[in-house]
Amino acid sequence: MSNQNANANSIEASTKTVTVGCKLPNGLHLDLKANDGATSRVTLKGANDSRIVGGFGLTENVSAEFMERWLKKNAKHPAVVGGAIFIHSDMRSAESLAKERRDLTTGLDAIDPVKSGMLRNETGQDDPKAIADYNKRKQENPARNRQVQE
């Protein structure tokens, strides 16, 4: 067996692991194909996970070798270039990095109806009644459609 094949087949067996942060809403399936045609897949948790930190879903115990190979192969992927996917050696450090990147936008973020102008009247002006109703509903149920965010 060639050295390349041995590395491709041992992706799953790697003992060094990392934590991967992903701010894409639904996470992402990461696939790597080995020389023998077998595919290894890691599914990242995303911003819609039940527990998010700084807007990132954190996936623990991912093979470091797998992630290094995937990142090398996909270095120009928009989520990698934009910082929406990152790796860190341990969970505590990944949580800190996710909190630091809290304000990162992906282009797939939720739309604020007030800032986006969705609550304007037919003349194009902000509709005070619609904004008041929105703010009241938001205040009555602040966790509506939201996951626990740390």
What's the structural blueprint in terms of helices and strands?
Elements: H1 3-9, E1 17-22, E2 28-33, E3 39-44, E4 51-53, E5 56-63, H2 64-73, H3 78-81, E6 85-88, H4 91-100, H5 128-140, E7 148-149
Parallel strand pairs: 4-7
Antiparallel strand pairs: 1-5, 1-6, 2-3, 4-5
Q: Which properties best describe this structure?
A:
single chain, 150 residues, alpha+beta, 2 domains, five-stranded mixed β-sheet, two-stranded antiparallel ribbon, disordered N terminus
Overall 3D form:
elongated
Fraction in helix:
25-40%
The number of domains: 2
Mean pLDDT: 85
Give the distance, in angstroms, between the N- and C-terminal Cα atoms. Answer: 47 Å
Number of helices: 5
Sheet with most strands: 5 strands, mixed
Q: If you compute it from the alpha carbons, what radius of gyration comes out, rounded to the nearest whole angstrom? A: 20 Å
Number of strands: 7
Question: Which stretches are poorly predicted, pLDDT < 50 over at least 5 residues?
Answer: 1-13
String of helices and strands = HEEEEEHHEHHE
Strand order across the largest sheet: 6-1-5-4-7
| Strand residue percentage | 15-25%
SSE-based structural type: alpha+beta
